[in-house]
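Support reply, case 0932

Customer input (verbatim):
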Amino acid sequence: VQLQASGGGLVQPGGSLRLSCTASGFSLDNYDIGWFRQAPGKEREFVAAIGRNGGSTAYAYNVKGRFTISRDNAKNTMYLQMNSLKPEDTAVYYCAVKSGITIATVTSRYDYWGQGTQVTVSS
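Our regenerated output:
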C-alpha cells in the first residue's frame, strides 16, 4: 500500500499549483480521500476531503473557494488544485485515505498517508 504525492514547488503569491497523489497496491475506489498540510512548528491540519464516489466534499474555511479536491478512480489518483495561493499556504501537503462511510476532517480517521510534498508560496 503506497501513496505517492507530487506537484509541489515554489510559486509566487496569487499563483496556482496542482498536487497529485497516486495510489499503488490498492484501489482508491473503496476509500474516501483527504489532503492535509503541516507548516513548520504547527500541527497537521485538514485542507480538503472527498467521498469515494466524488459526491461529497469538505474544505477548510481558509481554502474554500481557492482549492478544489478531485479524484480519478480510473487512474487511481487524487488531486488538489490550488489557486490564488497565499504565503500562509506554505506547508508540506499530505494525501491520505480512509475507509468507512463518511468523509472526515481529522487525521486520526485516516488509514494511509503519502510522504508529503512541499509547497512554498513566496515572492
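We compared this against your earlier run and they match. Two observations from our side: Residues 42 and 89 are 12 Å apart (CA to CA). DSSP finds no helices and eleven strands in the chain. Please reopen the case if you see a mismatch on your end.
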